[in-house]
Specification:
The structure holds three protein chains of three kinds. Chain A contains 14 helices and no strands. By secondary structure, chain A is an all-alpha fold. Classes of the chains: A mainly alpha, B mainly alpha, C alpha/beta. Chains in contact: A-B, A-C, B-C.
Chain lengths: 291, 299, 442
């Protein structure tokens, strides 16, 4: 059981050996070609802007320099990245925390309790998957303005923390947990709340991690909403700052610093991914995505 | 006393689920469903995003889109092209990669990491990176093309193949999602089925066809629906690569909406486009769900 | 009873969760606001804050911000806070801010944008300017015309932002050309271009071009509009109600651009990142705005010249402007703020700032004394643009609510022509029809 969803080492169905070699060559080529653009961003960020434009492209910089990184943290040709990095971190981690909290609360009764209107509410939540976020921008903007919360962390965190997908994912997972475990807890005198945090949530770690990672990625990389809603430098997040460095008319040829900001913006997501990548599959596998 | 606690228990039973749901539902209503309703309202008005009154104009916005707007049908066409290119290729490639990664080949951790890694990169970084790599004059790709004696390409500058290139970049960037879901799906197929197939004398190709694919039916349904919905809402990846150009070749509905709303400030029309997207997605989802239900019954 | 207790704890838990989830964030929000409300140092400084929003995302903005620091020290009673915002979503943000009453006291726009804001921004009469202490005749005359709508002046023309001609003197010398003699007409442009086109590494392929066509939709339109004006045509008719470019002037303008590669072979057929190519020395010439000056400065040797007359009738070049607008609402309600904003605006329009800013950054002033400054006139990095203004060849983009949209339409038709998807004739007819549709909309 414990190994069933473990991603490596599992070989259920095998292709014969000769074909495996061909397959290996093929997939290795794909893997390497997937990596090249990423390696290129990294190597470019260690090359001076002028070399990037005038010299031939190369994967390993001729004259490596960390000047780009020093620039983006200090000299502020347009904006420094220290504060935005902090903002992004605050926003992303808060979003993850709130999402997990709110979604698991909402998913629990939908998965485990019989009540009038549960079907209706579930469909209502699925409807949310079909609403393009961009559609609600203006309404949301007016809403947050009316409560005086523009240019705060709240306006960056809350919309991302309400995740119909998260409720859906956790509901599916909670349904796979044997009901007997819950019944035992209830007989022991646990209330619903205690059952949720002492029985259900500890058993749902893979799903929670999976949702947490997806939420983190979405929040960290969120671009358009902060771009539209923020008007104070202090509050800007990394992707917004990136668009400053990218500013179409001027500075478009500061490729070195631009790539340095890109790398800085990507490092946290890459680290989180490398640390938790096996839960990606594990979490989804165990939710048994079925209608 | 007895009856009293009994009633309390019943009431408690009734309200407990709603107490759990309260935080999510209240925010959800206010921040997602309410804007949706408001959006429906705006689609019947004329609003420049600045004036405080929104005069009611009936169906004028929809009429304008259908009969006058030079770019509405262009963007419908672009959206359909995007979906036709994007959804099937991402499903087939996602499945193929998942099957390959599931073979336990030597170096599988490297393969998996490399293929999943682009997924975590910011779309702004992706747009920026490929914008430069694909520049016809100074881009890296054309440099290598020339070096290996191949004719340099125009990439994102000419309209004929832009959508294909955008989809290729999108595959690079987001194939991980489908691959992950399929990997998960593959691990849910009981091994006994493969053993049985082997005993029946199935070749590996046959057992893929008769065991693996049917076993992935639910997964595929999920992937197809997510992909179709996602493709209708596709914005960031295209916007940051081409801004809807060249010659409107990649001006999908969301980009048209964004231009009309946030660049030209015709919020009524932008809202009308949003309504159209929402209705199309809703109908398609219902159709897909019922189609999958039918095949389920057949099996 | 226990059930009630448990329900109580449960509700308490939810409340606590909200407390954690939102109140912390609320607190963050109010913390951000406190300094602006003058929370701490009431006794020492009671400054009037003037918020200034700008779309100068490049080095022009950085230089401007440096100057504002100087202004704030010189004017201890005022604090100007400059906020640079990305240009793509800029106008949307300003509009949303005006709608919700969060507008800054001052914001800058380009020459074609005031009509988007007209009923929501303050207007001025000549008397008002006299009171503030701004003498209209100190400035390039057409600068004020550009902010005049219905007999009233909306905003201040802070600077003129023309398109122009950059070239690389080193590549000129290498090609045996005189770097002090940039082209003035089509014939010279082509002659020089043919010499500038080179195969520098001997692989049989051209790798240094005279010019590379821009891959930007809008900048492409600016080049075309410049040549259209040179042909005696114009984008719209006099009262800006109809497209006026579907004629010989417009057609010739397209063909001149196409001929760069088609007939003369001085440009590659495929457009690209023209600025990058210019910096890299892969193109000897680039058509670009004055804003690019600062970007080129520490990267490449360059000089500027007035846009050569590629068309057949007269010299002309597309131009924008940097304009200050002042949202309505605080003029009467908060006179101290208004006065501070006017002090700031007057300083921006003043001799000292205009000269220093023009010297330091990528934009031009609108004051005549700066435009005629001998030191600037001798600076080859900017002299070309100054000459464009003093020779009167500058043509401002038409100011309409829909100008952005019109440029979008024309730009996309032009890119279809360059990509070989549409004939020039069809492209002009098509965009004429679409532009007229846009203009006919109420």
């Amino acid at each position: 059981m414990e190994n069933k969803y473990y991603i490596s080492g599992q070989r259920k169905w095998e292709i014969p050996n000769l074909k495996r070699l061909i397959l290996w060559v093929f997939i290795t080529i794909i893997a390497v070609s997937f990596l090249i653009p990423i390696i290129w961003i990294i190597s470019g960020s260690f090359t001076s802007s002028i070399d990037l434009v005038t010299k031939h492209p190369r994967l390993i910089p001729e004259k490596p320099t960390v000047q780009n990184y020093i620039d983006v943290f200090t000299t502020n040709k347009t904006q420094t990245v220290g504060r935005p990095l902090l903002n992004s971190a605050i926003v992303s981690f808060s979003t993850v925390f709130l999402t997990l909290l709110i979604s698991s609360f909402a998913a629990y009764p939908l998965a485990r309790m019989e009540f009038k209107g549960s079907q209706f509410i579930f469909v209502l939540i699925l409807l949310g998957l079909m609403i393009p976020m961009q559609v609600s921008f203006i309404s949301l903007y007016l809403l947050f303005n009316s409560v005086g919360l523009l240019n705060t962390y709240t306006v960056l965190i809350l919309p991302g923390a309400i995740s119909p997908f998260g409720v859906f994912l956790l509901r599916q997972f909670f349904r796979t947990i044997p009901k007997e475990l819950e019944d035992v807890a209830m007989i022991d005198g646990c209330g619903r709340l205690k059952t949720l945090y002492s029985i259900i949530l500890p058993l749902s770690v893979p799903a929670l991690l999976c949702l947490g990672i997806f939420t983190f990625l979405g929040s960290w990389n969120s671009f358009l909403w902060p771009l539209i809603v923020l008007t104070k430098s202090k509050m800007m997040t990394l992707p917004v700052i990136l668009s400053y460095y990218w500013g179409a008319f001027a500075g478009v040829n500061e490729w070195g610093t631009l790539l340095a900001v890109s790398v800085i913006a990507s490092v946290p997501t890459i680290l989180i991914f490398l640390l938790f990548q096996r839960y990606f599959v594990q979490g989804i596998a165990t939710t048994g995505i079925k209608g | 006393m007895e009856t009293n606690t009994g009633r309390v228990t019943i009431i408690k039973k009734k309200i407990t689920p709603f107490l759990f749901l309260l935080p999510f539902l209240s925010f959800y209503l206010v921040m997602q469903l309410f804007p949706l309703v408001q959006n429906f309202h705006v689609s019947f008005t004329e609003w420049d995003m600045m004036s405080s009154n929104k005069p009611f104009v009936g169906l004028d916005n929809f009429k304008y889109l259908f009969f006058t707007d030079p770019f509405f049908w262009v963007s419908i066409k672009a959206t359909l092209l995007y979906i036709v290119l994007n959804v099937p290729s991402k499903i087939v490639i996602g499945l193929a990669l998942a099957v390959a990664l599931n073979q336990g080949l030597w170096g599988k951790t490297f393969h998996r990491t490399a293929i999943f890694l682009p997924f975590v990169i910011n779309s702004a970084v992706v747009g920026l990176l490929f914008g430069w790599m694909l520049d016809p004059q100074s881009g890296m790709l054309n440099y290598f093309f020339k070096k290996f004696g191949l004719p340099p390409q125009q990439w994102l500058v000419q309209p004929d193949w832009t959508m294909e290139i955008v989809v290729l970049v999108t595959i690079w960037w987001s194939i991980a999602f489908n691959t992950i879901v399929y990997l998960a799906g593959l691990q849910g197929i009981p091994e006994e089925l493969y053993d049985a197939a082997k005993i029946d004398g199935c070749t590996s190709w046959q057992s893929f066809w008769h065991v693996t694919l049917p076993g992935l039916r639910d997964t595929t349904m999920f992937v197809v629906i997510m992909q179709v919905i996602g493709s209708f809402q596709a914005f960031g990846n295209i916007w940051l690569l081409t801004h809807g150009g060249p010659v409107n070749a990649t001006r999908v509905l969301m980009i048209h909406l964004y231009r009309v709303g946030f660049y030209f400030f015709r919020m009524g029309q932008a809202a009308a486009i949003a309504v159209i997207i929402f209705i199309i997605v809703l109908i398609l989802t219902l159709i897909m769900l019922s189609m999958f239900r039918k095949t389920e019954l057949k099996n | 009873m226990r059930g009630i207790k448990r329900a109580g704890i449960f509700i308490l838990a939810i409340v606590l969760m909200f407390a954690f989830g939102t109140s912390v964030l609320f607190a963050k929000g109010t913390q951000e606001k406190q300094p602006a409300a003058g929370g701490k140092g009431v006794a020492t400084t009671k400054k009037v804050v003037v918020n200034y929003w700008s779309r100068k995302t490049g080095s022009d903005g950085t230089v401007f911000a440096e100057f504002i620091k100087g202004f704030n020290t010189d004017n201890p009673g005022i604090e100007v806070k400059m906020q640079v915002l990305p240009w793509g979503e800029y106008y949307g943000k300003v509009r949303a801010a005006i709608l919700t009453g969060n507008a800054p006291e001052v914001f800058d726009v380009s020459v074609y944008s005031p009509p988007m804001f007209l009923p929501y921004v303050e207007s001025f009469t000549k008397d008002d300017f006299a009171k503030i202490g701004i003498n209209l005749s100190d400035y390039a005359e057409n600068a004020w015309e550009a902010v005049k709508f219905g007999g009233k002046y909306y905003g201040f023309p802070v600077g003129i932002v023309p398109y122009g001609f950059y070239y690389n003197p080193n590549l000129y010398r290498n090609a045996g050309l005189n770097p002090d003699k940039p082209p003035t007409n089509l014939k010279e442009f082509v002659e020089q271009g043919k010499k500038l086109k080179k195969d520098t590494n001997g692989d049989g392929k051209i790798n240094q071009w005279a010019i590379i066509l821009t891959d930007g939709n809008i900048s492409r339109t600016w080049v075309w509009e410049s040549i259209l004006d040179q042909n005696g045509g114009s984008l719209l008719n006099k009262d800006k109600t109809k497209a006026a470019f579907n004629n010989k002037a417009g057609l010739d303008a397209i063909n001149i651009i196409l001929d760069f590669s088609r007939k003369y072979g001085i440009a590659p057929k495929v457009p690209g990142k023209n600025e990058t190519a210019f910096i890299a020395g892969k193109a000897a010439i680039v058509f670009d705005g004055v804003w690019a000056r600062k970007m080129f400065q520490d990267k490449v040797t360059f000089a500027t010249a007035p846009m050569p007359q590629l068309g057949s009738v007269k010299p002309a070049v597309w131009s924008s402007m940097d304009i200050f607008l002042f949202p309505k609402g605080y003029h009467t309600k908060n006179p101290a703020k208004w006065e501070a904003a006017m002090t700031f605006a007057k300083w921006v329009m003043g001799e000292k700032f205009q000269l220093a800013y023009t010297k330091a950054a990528g934009q031009l002033a609108s004051r005549l004394d700066t435009l005629n400054n001998t030191e600037l006139r001798a600076d080859s990095h900017v002299s070309g643009f100054l000459e464009e203004i003093s020779s009167g060849m500058v043509v401002y983009a038409p100011a309409l609510k829909t100008t952005q949209e019109i440029y979008g339409i024309v730009g996309s038709s032009l890119s279809a022509v360059i990509a070989g998807k549409l004939s020039p004739e069809k492209a002009l007819a098509q965009s004429e029809k679409q532009v007229n549709q846009v203009l006919a909309r109420k």
